[in-house]
TrEMBL record:
GO biological process: phosphate ion transmembrane transport
Signal peptide positions (record): none
Protein name: Phosphate ABC transporter ATP-binding protein, PhoT family
Keywords: ATP-binding, Cell membrane, Membrane, Nucleotide-binding, Phosphate transport, Translocase, Transport
Residue intervals of the ABC transporter domain: 22-269
GO terms of molecular function: ATP binding; ATP hydrolysis activity; phosphate transmembrane transporter activity
GO cellular component: plasma membrane
Intracellular or extracellular location(s): Cell inner membrane
Membrane topology of this protein: Peripheral membrane protein
SMART domains: AAA (SM00382)
Function: Part of the ABC transporter complex PstSACB involved in phosphate import. Responsible for energy coupling to the transport system.
Length: 274
């Protein structure tokens, strides 16, 4: 058992502890996934079921493969020419590595939010309608509704509803990140991947995003990479600890932080390395 170490988050109120023991569906099933950048193997035999309508946190030291892993979930890694993968990733029971699988479809179902807010240098309104417009929606009334719904979903509507035509670059960093979440919600995804979404933000903006993530899991399944173990403890239901490309331990967040099975997990979460 872990003592109260300085880096181990408090998990008394972890959602996993209050959750009813129900058999949740899995949105992803990852089986024996290996990935190489050229000759260097970055993911080694990863097996993981990712539950629906929960927050799954990916933690581990720098370079252990966290970003690489979540980028495989929407096949973003294949955009890098030297990448080779084997194994399977089933999204809603279909192997996304299957030759006939439509990656465009996957990207409409799986949205992604990056570490640094990356709004387009366009108006707030145009940022949100970007995806829907690409998918052929032209009706102004429909687009207006998408904008309101998405910005409300990202807890940004009240702050920007009177300045939708203003350039998004004028928003604060935290607002820009919520705008990127709104842009992601506008395509009505099923899953949201978040790669360290708060690491560039101040504590108050971080708290807002954390609250938002908790709220969003009612409607979406969320996978979040975080360096911040307190954050993983506060907002996730499940946590996977990666080390050198391998999943060392994957369990309910409360278990990972209170009684990890593997000494390496315990050492990491108690701040002994990483
Ligand atoms: N485009 C790339 N080309 C070659 N190697 C890469 C590339 N991207 C990542 N890697 C390597 O793959 C390994 C895993 O990197 P990855 O970015 O997935 O780790 P991470 O856990 O997300 O790290 P961090 O916490 O620092 O963001 C590292 O050794 C990294 O150098």
């Amino acid at each position: 058992m872990l003592a109260n170490t300085k880096n181990a988050p408090a998990v008394e109120n972890s959602p996993a502890q209050n959750k009813e023991a129900v058999n949740k569906k899995n949105v992803y099933k990852v089986e024996q996934l290996n990935l190489w950048y050229g000759k260097d193997q970055a993911l080694i035999n990863v097996n993981m079921d990712i539950p629906e309508n929960e927050v799954t946190a990916i933690i581990g030291p720098s370079g252990c493969g966290k970003s690489t892993f979540i980028k495989t979930l929407n096949r973003m890694t294949e955009m890098i020419p030297i990448v080779k993968t084997n194994g399977s990733i089933y999204y809603r029971n279909e192997n996304i590595f299957n030759k006939k699988y439509q990656v465009e479809y996957l990207r409409t179902k799986v949205g992604m939010v990056f570490q640094k807010p990356n709004p387009f240098p366009k108006s707030i309104y145009e940022n949100v309608v970007y995806g829907p417009k690409i998918h052929g929606i032209k009706d102004k009334k429909v687009l207006d509704e998408v904008v309101e719904k998405s910005l409300k979903g990202a807890a940004l509507w009240d702050e920007v509803k009177d300045r939708l035509k203003e350039n998004a670059m004028g928003l604060s960093g935290g607002q820009q990140q919520r705008l990127c979440i709104a842009r992601c919600l506008a395509i009505e995804p099923d899953v949201i991947l978040m790669d360290e979404p708060t690491s560039a933000l101040d504590p108050i903006s971080t708290l807002k995003i954390e609250e938002l993530v908790q709220d969003l899991k009612k409607d979406y399944s969320i996978v979040i990479v975080t360096h911040n173990m307190q954050q993983a403890g506060r907002i996730s239901d499940k946590t996977a600890f990666f080390l050198n490309g391998e999943v060392i331990e994957y369990d309910d967040t409360a278990t990972i932080f209170s009684s990890p099975q593997d000494k390496r997990t315990e050492d990491y979460i108690s701040g002994r390395f990483g």
